[in-house]
Amino acid sequence: MIEYIGNSVGVDWDAVITDCVNSEPEYIGPSHSKADNIPGLDEVASIWESAGYKNLDDGGTVGWGMYIPGRQFEQSAVDTFCQQFGIHDYHTAWISEIKPGNFAPVHWDVNDKEEELSKLPPKVRYHCHIGKPKFGHVFIAEDTCFYNQEQGATYRWADRKYWHAGSNCGLESKFILNLW
Amino acid sequence: MTSKLIANTQGLIDWDEIVEICRNSNDGDYNSVKTVVDRSEGSWKDDPELLGSYREVIELWDNAGYDLNQIEWYDYYPGEHFDIEVETKFAELINVIPRRTFVSEVYPGRCVPYHWDVEDNEKQWLAEGDLVRYACFMDKPKFGHVFILEDEIFYNAKQHDVIEWGFYKDWHAGTNCGSEPWYLFHMLGTPK
Hints:
- The structure holds two protein chains of two kinds.
- By secondary structure, chain A is α+β, with helices and mostly antiparallel strands.
- Chain A has helices spanning 13-21, 41-51, 75-85, 114-117, and strands spanning 2-7, 27-29, 64-67, 93-98, 103-107, 125-128, 137-141, 144-146, 153-157, 164-168, 174-179.
- Chain A has a single domain (2-179), classed as Jelly Rolls (Sandwich), CATH 2.60.120.10.
- In chain A, 19% of the residues lie in helices and 29% in strands.
- Chain B is of the alpha+beta class.
- In chain B, strands 1-9-6-11-4-3-2 form a seven-stranded antiparallel sheet.
- In chain B, α2 runs antiparallel to α3 (48-64).
- The radius of gyration of chain B is 16 Å and the shape is globular.
- Classes of the chains: A alpha+beta, B alpha+beta.
- Chain A binds chain B through residues 47, 50-54, 60-62, 99-101, 103-106, 135-136, 138, 140, 143, 145, 147-148, 163, 165-172, and chain B through 60-61, 63-67, 70-71, 107-114, 143-144, 146, 148, 151, 153, 155-156, 171, 173-180.
């Protein structure tokens, strides 16, 4: 289940996006390849391979910028976000950027520590539409397509392992805060 | 202006069959920035405005940072790739004279970015009546198949649903972040 939990009003998301735009991303995803021995990765990689996806480096369209709190933007943005929504502990947080024409194809976020995580109860995940709504900014999670969401709109997923995807067929970069 | 849901082709057209034909075809009409510009050169002398319109859209994409080489899609036509009867039945259902009919195919990892459809024969068609644009969700809903029309988004739309656009030159886009090719039926027509 994915549930709307409110608008993240306490953070100046425009300023956070400016910080991201003015810095180099920590890295360009995806960070894993099929050769990595991580449970769950094969399933995602096989889907991409048979669908014909290729990474940006290989002349394709798969790629997204990863921005980390305390590195490319202020940690306080995430702290304020967590305070507002009563999130006391989290494993990881990042802002993803999808540039026009690029893709984060259908996937779930396979983590380096997937083996350990799989022994724990499902972890909830949050996503926040930190940019103003713009043409072509598409985010899909499970069977819902999030579009024209107001800036700051925040959703909680019952399980971080939901399948999701992002695409941008508009004219400006798309930014989303992710946290679980 | 927003679109309207105006009809449903259930029981009238077997879209699954058309999807299969397109999917198995090797001679779809390939479209890219290069082919669009090349084709429009033919009408350049007759109508310089046309080429300007194509270039205006492509310039938007270029300025947005698109890798123009990655923009591609295929079109399939009635009478050439699939039975002309499909066009006839559809036009009868919505009561129009068909002007341009095609099925678009967008592969995973491809998008047809923000644009409006420049029509080479627009002036001629307008001299003969109004123009109205329609789309039919011919394929079953699948993950990642997204159609955007002005400020509306269509996702998981019911197979067979037919929408009438607010205006035939509305800005639109299609993208596919799923795992299968995506098909959409289009008709530009003159209401009878």
